[in-house]
Amino acid sequence: MLLTNSVFDVANTTYASATDYSVNGGMLFNVRIKGVAGSSGTRHGIVTSGTSNNIDVSHIDRCTVVGFGGSGFADTTTTTPSRNVFITKCNFIGNGGAGILMSATASQIRMRMIANCYLANNTAWGIDNASSRTTMFNNRLRDNTSGNITGAGNHSTDRNNYTTDSDDATEFVDAGTGDYRIKSGSVIHGNGYGVSDQASSGGGGGPLIGPGRLIRG
């Protein structure tokens, strides 16, 4: 499944997730997914799982996932995962669980990669690897209540992941109105974090979402 240039706006208080990529994988590109804390259900933003020995891929690129009661992204596989998961240039902001929660098993035959993402203000961890084999590089992580990265095991967490403390006003254009572009002139501008950060010579970047659809649920 391929979904691009769309906005998900979740209104229900009871739900499992806004999107579920558990069958055959797929790609989300340039999608904004806005949640609510809710009252019951796992209430994740994006869910994927894969247990059969296949070559399914879930690729989430240039997406903003904000305000869910659960995790922004959750791999809910409980046995040996077989799906490749690539998460690139995404924002995971202010979710009630982790920004990204990987599958709770260390035995894997596929890859997990998180690169150039911005993860902040999540109630649990920025990235909870849950012992998964995950490659993480060039991510911005800060102000996640439980901490920035956990469950990495023997895998490196020091591949240009930037964790120096800061705040929304310093690094975002206008977090109060949901504008999570990197502010021009901030220390982190031009490092490729998140949905719309551009190289320093290219300016601040504009909103990516264009003609598409608004999906409320």
Strand percent estimate: 35-45%
How helical, in percent, are the residues?
under 10%
Summarize the main sheet.
Answer: 11 strands, parallel
Q: Return residue spans where pLDDT drops below 50 for at least 5 consecutive residues.
A: 199-208, 210-214
Number of helices: 1
Radius of gyration: 16 Å
Structural class: mainly beta
Residue-averaged pLDDT, rounded?
Answer: 83
Give, in order, the helices and strands. Answer: EEEEEEEEEEEEEEEEHEEE
Keywords:
217 residues; mainly beta; eleven-stranded parallel sheet; six-stranded parallel sheet; 1 helix; 19 strands
Could you write a compact summary of the structure shown?
2% of the residues lie in helices and 37% in strands. By secondary structure, it is mainly beta. Strand 17 (172-174) and strand 18 form a beta hairpin.
